[in-house]
Amino acid sequence: MSTPTPPQPDFPPPFPPEPPKPSKPAKNRTNAIIIGSAAAAIAAIVITGVAVANSDGRGETAAPAPTVTVTETAEMTDQEILDKSMEILESAEADVDAGVEPDVTVPAVEETAEEPEGPLTSIDEGTYLVGEDVKAGSYKTSGPSDGMCYWARNSDDSGELKAIIANDILKGPGRVTLNKGEIFETNGCDTWELAE
Asked: Whose CB has fewer CB within 10 Å in the chain, the N or C terminal residue?
């Protein structure tokens, strides 16, 4: 017994139709939805944060926090510090006269070392014009600071041998008399001090 074959169509079946494309929302509408959602989320976070910050744990609202003001202070000169100190002291004096014990803190003023006036009376390593850089007179040293102490009295600062009036290499304490107008040179010696 044979099985009947189904009838064959005369032409091939058509391709299935394309599914419809979803419609795109307008670009401006999409941006508005995104911005609106973000704004709502931020507002919810801020409101929740304010509610939590203002709550003291018992359902009561805390008092508002005080306002803090930051003031930048300018540096004052020594004279301004002294003037301000005098003003504070005068005010304190008035309080004492009125029978009030003041609590005053006077700002400290740094003392600066003044440059010596006139020629030096102590000489460290270097070359000096006697009468201008250093005072004329008799100087003494304890000797070498690191092995060798050389000194020279010169008629000028040419550096030539003929300019040397006197010189020496000390192994211990030494003394030299310097005259106005001479050039004194010292190297490797402890400080020379004017002898009195």
From this structure: N
